[in-house]
Amino acid sequence: MAEKLLALEGISKTFPGVKALDDVSFDLEKGEVHILVGENGAGKSTLMKILAGVYLPDGGRIVHKGEAVAFENPRQAQDRHIAIIYQEFNLMPNLTVAQNICLGREPLHNGGFIDKERMRRTARRLLDFLRMDIDVDQPVSRLGVAHQQLVEVAKALSADAEILIMDEPTATLSEKEIDQLFKTIRNLRGQGVSIIYISHRLQEIKQIGDRVTVLRDGRTIGCRPVEGIVIDELIAMMVGRTIGGNRIRVRNTARGEEALVVEELRNHKLRGVSMHVRRGEIVGLSGLVGSGRTELARAIYGIDPILSGRVRLLGKDMKLKRLTPARCIRTRMGFIPENRKEDGLTLSMPIVQNVTQASLGQLFRSGLIDGREERRLAAKYSADLRLNTKNMSMLAQNLSGGNQQKVVLAKWLCTHSDFLIFDEPTRGIDVGAKEEIHNLIDGLAAGGVGIMMISSDLPEILAMSDRVYVMREGGIVKELPGDGTTQEEIIRYAVGRGDR
Amino acid sequence: MNRAFLDRFSRILALVLIVVLLAATKPNFLGVRNLLNILNQASLNVIVAVGMTFTMLIAGIDLSVGSILALTSVMAARFFQTGGVSDMIAGFAVALGLGTFLGVLNGAAIVHLRVPAFLVTFGMMQAARGFAYLFNSGVIYNNFDGKFLFLGKGDVLGVPTPVAIAALVLGLFGLILAKTTMGRRVYMVGANYSSARYSGISIGRTTIFAYALSGLLAALAGLVYISRLNAAEAIIGEHFNLMAIAAAAIGGVSFNGGSGSVFGTVLGALILTIIMNGMNLHGIPTQYQNLATGAAIILAVLLDRRAMRAEV
Fold it and tell me: Does residue A199 sit in the same domain as residue A272?
């Protein structure tokens, strides 16, 4: 057998109170795409951080090119040409594309000043290699997420990365951008770069993977060649139990009263949007990234200003000039935002305070907080959501992604809202938790809550929605029924070829 | 062990160490008289620093407390010379009302003009000081009525009045911060502005509330201060800004907002005062006292950083 490029053998890592990794083994061959899957909290990120020199393992060893190595800091991993691209990019928004790509490795003139011309040339060469045509002199903040990610890839290449770790690279990309990324990955593999690819999207495995390793609860469950693998088998390995196929909920065609009516809404992004959601109904909002889905939700919720139009929320005409989240919450609307770490949670605060955050005024009318009652409520909603921790004073930042999302959901259960907007409710969340969240949304709708669900995950939209609106360039271009609609149909409207 | 506990513990430990050191070297340090003296000295800073804590918890700062203290006390001073009850009430109303108003102005400017707190309160610091000079134009108010002097020089059952007032302020505002929805909102806005906003917490109202409190407490400290001095003039209180910030910083209130407590701040104020008191007892000149204060602040901030890093 050929010598492995990289082997992690028997790696263990314990954090206070948690055994994150327990005798995990993983290896990588030159020029392969090795996919790492597992539920949230399975230990994928910890394993990769050990490889990138962020954490030191407690036990086990890393063998790179036949040599046992120990990375005490990220620099040492970089020196061995191992690069990692995190979900949250490490780019300097105000620096140019070229400056970011060469950050920390700027070519110098003899005098010791930065050789800007050479820097631009390096950047352009790498971007050409990635078949990406952008101006290297513009600041990174002007680029979309997909382009920023490619800048990250270029940055890794500029450090001569031979091993590239990508953590959930497609989480924020649209379908088209994902295709582009996959081309880049195949291209890199062709050049002999080895890629470790962490993903929750199981259908991606077949598109780009050579081998796949499943982690569960900090242990290696198995490593399989992608060729001939069955997705259901992978899911079973990940969750340790078998999950049925794509569950289709019982569609709600009953006519409840209107939870939300929006007419001719206009602002910087929206170009006259009209739509409605009934109570007990789940309405999917589909469209490419940047089509105005989140902006519509933010406008309704009083975060982005509205220029003109009408919003009727749960039977109440809202004054558009004075629309604020607080007013929406008082009218019994809630909003689960797409970026849970930035907008959904207060990471440095305990679970209990996050759960009651949106209902403080409602729960404690006198203005005095009853600590015992607060903890009781937090424990109740967390238990309803099967949050995997009993410790309500645990800080939100110490929870895994799936558990964090459950805390955000608990926050909105606590408000007893009658209309809820979910923005990408299962993004970056493992299959098990995803199903639980879908059941929860389903249950809320069955209980008479009106639901608007924004999602880039088309199977999710189709499995969950009673009706689907497709958005494109700030407007709703099509309303489709949940039944009988196909992914292709939605995509056609989303890209503007619906009338073909 | 969680971080909040370690944080507070390290400060109590520091305080105990300093006390033990001083008690060992100067026998009269632990005398009731000296201890009350220390509390009395710390009391004004405690009152102002409690307000500062609120502004720092929402990731802001209030540089104008010293000037607000001066302006409100010179505006109110004349009412305390007669001893009439209605004059007394008027004096308190003028000082506390104006202090609160200036705080609201600070908060509103930060929220609505979107200017950083540092700059807004820096401007207020200059403007309020300027007004104080314009208003009293070199006059020194003194000869306050005996009843008013009780505020700064009297005592309640042997406890100096300023200490009693500081204790009340500490209890009341500690309670607001720890036990009320408003206090919770202050922490939430400081810890994650965006999540607070999505949760329906009004950033504007919370910010204005924090600065209003800071202004109110600066004005209250001003009244106690001029009573203790038995004099009011525009120049007073210039060092209050930095002492209050130092107390909060030493007490573990994060400059990034969202973490810290008024009890930490009080520990910070006590540590500051005791260091100075101890150096006085040892006859160490003022210059060295400033040096020690500076060192204490830097040490406290370093401690915080290490605690933060240990967390990540």
Answer: no
| A269 and A228 within one domain | no
Shortest Cα–Cα distance, B78 to chain A (Å): 38
Ranges under pLDDT 70 in chain B: 1-8, 305-312
Which CATH code for domain B3-311? Answer: 1.10.3470
Residues from chain A contacting residue B182 (CB–CB below 8 Å): 367
**Binning pLDDT at 50, 70 and 90, where does residue A203 land?**
confident
B180–A346 C-beta distance less than 8 A = no
Q: Distance between CA atoms of B200 and B187, rounded to whole angstroms?
A: 14
Same-domain check for residues A229 and A368: no
The verdict on A272 and A342 lying in the same domain is yes
Whole-angstrom distance, CA of residue B188 vs CA of residue A346 = 7
ipTM of the assembly? 0.87
- Per the CB < 8 A criterion, the answer to whether A285 and A453 are in contact is yes
Closest by Cβ to B198, choosing from A325, A361, A393: A325
**Chain A contact present for B200, CB below 8 A:** yes
Give the tens place of pLDDT for each residue, A140-169: 888 877 788 888 888 888 888 899 999 888
**A178 and A39 assigned to the same domain:** yes
> For residue A110, what are the domain limits?
6-239
Residues 6+ apart with CB under 8 A from A231: A202, A203, A205, A206
Q: Which of A313, A329, A343, A413 to mutate to test the interface with B (most CBs of B within 10 A)?
A: A343
Residue A245 maps to a domain:
no
Cα distances (Å, whole numbers) of residue B246 to A217, B63, B236:
46, 12, 19
Domain boundaries, chain B: 3-311
| Cβ(A475)–Cβ(A298) below 8 Å | no
Higher pLDDT, A448 or A133: A448
pLDDT in tens, A24-41: 999 999 999 999 987 666
Note whether A206 and A325 are same-domain residues. Answer: no
Q: Are residues A14 and A132 in the same domain?
A: yes
Domain contains A67: yes
Residue A374 is assigned to a structural domain of this protein: yes
Give A73's DSSP letter. S
Domain count, chain A: 2
What are the DSSP E strand ranges found in A2-56?
A: 6-15, 18-28, 33-38
Q: Is A344–B195 a contact, with Cβ atoms under 8 angstroms apart?
A: yes
**Residue A201 forms part of a structural domain:** yes
In the prediction, which pLDDT does A123 show? 92
Query: Is A369 in Cβ contact with B181 (below 8 Å)?
Result: yes
pTM greater than 0.80: no
Take residue A159 and report the two structure tokens written for it: 């450090």
Shortest CA distance from A371: residue in chain B: B179
| Closest by Cβ to A344, choosing from B191, B198, B200 | B198
